[in-house]
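Q: What would this chain look like folded?
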Amino acid sequence: MVRTSRTDTDRPAGTTLWNHEVTYRARSRALLVAVAGLATAPALVTPAAAQSGHKGASGGSGGAGGRTLTVKSGETLELTKTTTVTTLTIAEGGVIAAPDGHRLTLTVNGTETGARLSELTDGYGGLATAIAAGTYRGKVILTVAVANDVEYSDMTFPFRQAVYVDANGVDESKSVPSDVRGGSVAHTGAHDITLLSDGESFNGVYVTGGATYELKRPRIAFDGNGRCDFIGYGASVVGTGEGTTLVLDGAVIKNQGVVRTAVIADATANVIVKNSTIHCADGDHVPDEYPDTGSGDTRYMITVPWMLGISGNVRATNLLGASTRATYINSSVSSEKWGALSVDGGSNCTLTAINTRIANTGGEGYGSYAIGGVTEHFLGCTYDVGDYALIHWGASAHYGDSTREAVAALNESLELGLTKSELRGLPVKSTKIDAGRFMVLWYAAGSVAIDGGTQVNTGETTFMCKAVAAAVTVDGSGGARLNPGNGVIFQLMDTDRPSSVTVTGKPWKTEMLGTYTEPTGSAVKSSTWDTTTAQATDATASFTDIDLSGDFYNSVLGGGNASLQGQNLVLDFTRSTVTGVISASTAKHRVSTITMAEYREISEVTNTPGAVVNNGVVVTLGSRSTWTVTGTSYLSSLTLADTASVRGPRGRKVRLTVDGTATEIKPGTTYTGALTLSVA
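A: My prediction, written as C-alpha cells:
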C-alpha cells in the first residue's frame, strides 16, 4: 500500500512550521517511545542509526537529501528521538514504535498520517494506534513525544496532539510541531495555524492544567476515525481541567470520521468559541467488530443510540465533566447527523449559544442534548436540524432574543471575556427554529422557556414528552410563535424507547438490542390517582400573551412502559387564545413492534381522543383567554377566569357534560370530573 500525502500548498513560502515566539522547555535528549500493546509485537530490531546520516533498518541507506528508513516484515524498529527521512517504508508485519512513556506520530509534508487504531476487541479497549504498513514519501517526520495519557472510566487513553498546553504554556515535549503549518505558536496562544490529519485518533490542540489559551484563526481538517468523544480522544481541540480557559476566535474546523469531534469541553474548563465555523461529517467506516445495534457503554459508544430515533456516528461538539462551560458566539456549528451541540456524561454544566447557526446537514439529528442538570441558553440562534432542537434528559433550557442586557449578563456570569466593542458588534436577533420533527423530545424531567421573538417551526409535534415531568413556559408578548407541522403542540405519551441489554463475553457491557412492543388490552383506572389536580410528577405547560393553533394530548393511561400509576397534563393560558383539541387520548404507533430496523417509528403516533382514565387533563383559562374547541375533547378539570371563554369554530356552540350531565359553561367557574366538550 502506497500513501501519497497532501502537498504543502497551504504554507506561504518562507513560513516555518513552528514559529518559536518564546523559548520552549528543553526536550529530553533520550526520548523513549512505545506503541501500546507491544507485548504481542514481533521481536525488537534496533536500527543502525536513527537520524541524520543513518542507515535504514534492515537495508537501505541514506545521505543528505535522500534518507530512507525501511522496516521489514517481522521487524520492530524502536526510535529513541524524532527522526526525519524522505522515504519511510513499513512492510506488512513490520512495526515502528518506541519504548514506554512516549508516543510516536508520523507526519508527511505537515499532515499527520498513517495512524490506525487497533481493534476494539484487542483486549485493551482498542485504544492504541500504530503506523500502518506502506510507503510514505516527502518530508517524513517521526515525532517521539512524551506521553499524554488520560484516564476515563477504567481505561487510559494514549493521546497524541499537535500542540499541548498546560499552566506553564506550550510543552513541546508532548507536542508534534511538524503537524503545525504556518502561523505562530506561543505560550499564551497561537494564530493562523493549520492542522491536518488523515490518521486516526490524533488530537489538534489540547489545553489543560488551568492554562488560559487563545487560538486565533486556526484551520483544522481531520479525516479519519476518532475513538471516544466522552474524553475527546481524536478531537480537534480539547479544553479540560479546573481553571482552564480555551478561546477559539475565527476558527474553521471541518472533520470527517467516526467520533472525530471538533470541540471538547471537559472537567470544569471554560471553552469559548466565537466567529467560527465547525462541521463534522460521519465517518465512512464503523469498525467491523463494533455491534450493528451499537452499545450504550460510553467507553465504546461510537454511534448514536438508535433508540433516540436518529442515526449517525459523529457529533460536532461535546460538553463533559462537572460545572464545565461551553459557549458559542456568532458561529456556525453543524453535524451531518447525530448532534451539533452535545452535553453528555457530566453534571451541572452550562451550554450557551448566541447568534449561532445550529444545524444537521444529513436530514437527521439534534441541535442540542441536555443531561445531568445542565443549563442551556440559546439567544438569537438559527436552527436547521433534522429531527429535534433539543433532546431533554433533565435540565433547563431557554430560547430567546440576544438582547444587549441578556448577552451582557451572560458575558459576566460565564466569564466570556467579550469586550465592549464585541458586545456592541453583536446584533440583537430572535431565535428561529426549524426542526424536521419536534422542537423538544423529553426523556427526563426538566424545563424549557421560550420568549422574545422566538419562532418555532416543526415538521411534526412541537413538544414531545415521554411520561416525565416536563415544564414548558412560553411568553408570546415579544412575538414568540409555535407552528407545529402536524397540528399537535403537546404530546404526552408513554415511553416507547427500547432499552439496552447487558451482554457478557464482550469488551462492552451493553448492546442496544431492546424491542418496543405496543401494549395491548384496556387500561385500568387507579383508585388513588387524582386526575383533577396537579401532581408533582405531571407535565405542565404555561402560555402567556400568545395565539396558539394546535392540539394537546395526554395518552399516559397508567401501567404502561413508564410504570406510572397515572400522569396529568396541566395547561395554563393567560391572555392567550388556543384553537384545537385538548384531550385525554389513546396513542398508537404505525407498527406494533420497533427494533433498530424501525428506529424512525419511535415517537410516531396517532391519537384517538377518549375519556380520562389515569391521564388527566387539567386546563385553566386565565384572564382574557379563549379556547376555540375544534373537536370532541375529554378533560378532568376546567377552570375559567371571569374574563375567559370557550367557544366553537365559526359561531358553533360547544356542549359540556360533567359526569354525563349537560352543564352550562360559565366564566369564573371550575368543573371537575369526567368532562366532555363537543362541538354542536
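The chain has a mean pLDDT of 91.
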